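Extended Data, panel c. Modelled sequence:
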Amino acid sequence: MIRGLLAVACIALPLASMAQTVPEPVDYRMDHYRAPVPATLEGGTVVGPEEAHMLWQAREAAFIDVLPQPPKPANLPKGTIWRDKPRHSIPGAIWLPNVGYGAIADVTVDYFRAGLEKVTRGDLAHPVVIFCLEDCWMSWNAAKRALEWGYTSVYWFPEGTDGWQLWGYPLEKVKPEDGQPQTN
């Protein structure tokens, strides 16, 4: 029995480590946004749930949630009630939906820049923690973009609200930050 378990462990451990090895791309991820992410972000600091929680408790870093928000479907039958799916995020975080795509429109760039400006008060060295869900490239893209714009204390939290919740940390319902570009 023990030999069997050891044999399974010897096979499973290398497979698990291979599954975690995702190379950091040179440019933004342009598709398949819900997939394993790299363990690194050049120029940024990668944090797990415990480190993110310590930053949150210290109240010195701004938290930015970049989970996309699905648009209201076009051509809904008259009288159809549309309700956005609620987003539960890290308390105090601002939600800037749709800023993590690989290519974003100028209005979305402006929206993201305005959100960063607001939470950092224009200080490029002010710490920001950028997150989404686990295995979501949106946060990696958004953190990379913030670094390219000159922000110097960018923390990327790849486990996002999934990892946060797994550790039992609190979540609260949030709404998108004002000024969100309309897709319809």
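The beta strands are 45-46, 62-65, 87-89, 94-95, 128-131, 154-157, 172-174. This feature is highlighted in the accompanying rendering.
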